[in-house]
Structure formats: structure tokens, C-alpha cells
Amino acid sequence: MSLAEFLGRPNGDIKSLGDGQYLICPKGKDGYYLQTQLTMMCLGLQSCKLVIWTPSEDIELEIPFDKHYTDAQVQHLQNFFFVHMLPRLADDFADKKIHLCPTYLQMFNA
Q1: b/e sequence 84-106, b meaning 16+ C-beta within 10 Å
Q2: Which among 14, 15, 22, 75 would be 20 to 30 A from 92, CA to CA?
Q3: How far, CA to CA in Å, does 22 sit from each of 16, 18, 55, 60, 94?
Q4: CA 35 vs CA 14, 42, 45, 108: distances in Å
């Protein structure tokens, strides 16, 4: 896929604004914005560069950290984890469907 084809996808995450300017869409179907924001949060960064590369072309986007967006997404992720995922994992563990590594069990039981 060429860079032009990639940027021209109807629901793509990156849009060309012309004159070498690009926009990363927070609701893009591939989740690039969310990935960059969560990575910056975890690393304590205020910005990062996202490189879109093909063998013949590339673009580089400077992405600023969006604390408001990231906080909202983390809230959704926490809700999903604690309301849906953790109870399921606890049930599966109790039913011996999953096994935890001895190191984790030792920390958990300490």
C-alpha cells in the first residue's frame, strides 16, 4: 500500500491536511491515537513522534500528550477491567481454569 493509499482510507487514523500537514484522528479505527496517548502516559512523555513508513515514503507526526483524552480512556479501561475482566479472571482462577506463576502467587499470598 502506498502512503497516499494509506492516508486516503475512508476510516483511516491519519488524514492529510495538505502542505505536508497531517492529523491523527482520536476515533480512528486502528487506534493509533489511543496507543500513542497511553504510551506517553506510561512513559511520562509530553509528546512523541509517530512515523508512518513505506519502502519508498514516510511521514513523521509530532503528537502532543492529551491528558483529558487519556484520563477518560483510562477511566473506561479501569471500569472494563474491574467490572468485567477481574471478576471473570477470579472465577476462572477459582475454577482452576487458569494458573498463575509461582512468583505471582507468592507475592499475592504474602
Answers
A1: eeeeeeeeeeeeeeeeeeeeeee
A2: 75
A3: 5, 7, 19, 9, 49
A4: 13, 11, 13, 30
Question: Grid coordinates in use for 53?
Answer: 513508513
Q: Which residues pair with 16 in a beta bridge?
A: 22
Q: pTM for the full model?
A: 0.79
Chain position carrying cell 472465577: 91
SS (H, E, C) 46-98: CEEEEEEECCCCEEEEEEECCHHHHHHHHHHHHHHHHHHHHHHHHHHHHCCCC
Q: List pLDDT tens digits, range 45-96.
A: 999 999 998 888 999 999 999 999 999 999 999 999 999 999 999 999 899 9
Cα separation, 5 vs 16, whole angstroms: 11
